[in-house]
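Notes taken during the Thursday session

The instructor put the following on the board and asked us to keep it in front of us for the whole hour. The protein is VOC family protein. We were told not to look anything up and to reason only from what is written here. First, the residues (138 in total):
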Amino acid sequence: MDLKLRQCFIAVDDHDKALTFYRDVLGLEVRNDVGFEGMRWVTVGSPLQPDVEIVLEPPAANPDTSPADKEAMAQLLAKGVLRGVIFTTADCDALFDRVREHGADVVQEPMDQPYGVRDCAFRDPAGNLLRFMQRPAD
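Then, after some discussion, the predicted structure tokens were revealed:
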């Protein structure tokens, strides 16, 4: 099989705050910004990976989602228990300093993991966990 990842989705409760973080702090480019039926989807991605996108979407973005399910998703997002993504970077420490400098919620400072990578973690403005991993030099 010939499979490639094209898009992944991250729930956000404020697209403008999310854009400030993903675009201005992390340096991702905005590829699309679409509104439909009172909802908004913003697509961002790394200039180094033009074929991979992260869609920042509202919690429970399906218009057929029940009010109870929308409320449950909003509560989970507010608690910070929804998963985010893992990025790779050539310099975990420099990235950590930049993101922390912009006031992001630090979850884990850079550290060497027993499985061979150096990584750190933050929460985005919506509370999603994002990890930043530096692979060991060959």
